[in-house]
Amino acid sequence: MIESWVISDDSSGPVYSETVLEALQTRIDSGQLETWLASSSGRMLAFVTNTERAMVMLLEEEGDPGEHAVDPGAEGWSGGFVLSNGQDDEYPDEDTIPIHKAFRFVEHIVDTGSWPADARWMVDR
What we know:
Oligomer: single chain
Distance between the termini: 24 Å
Helix content: 10-25%
Number of helices: 2
């Protein structure tokens, strides 16, 4: 089965690997730093950024602890991950990745349904 993806709080229809990055960038430019995508199979993809680093999480269904991209060896913490409810989160840098990688990972997941071959991630289940 081929999955299709939509941005959860946007009624503009499906996003594709060719358009998802533009959609994310438009949301970031308007101050929306948290984006949830939902797939036709019930999976969810979260993208939360501070514009330099991003938390990327893939969940099998709502309520699933899921898995998230990691940057092993990264040191320190970064803040400025503002959620849609106004909460301003801070994460260890090893639990986030540089935004250019995050864009590539999201694009690949939307295209293929799985992490890129070179991605490192942690299962949180």
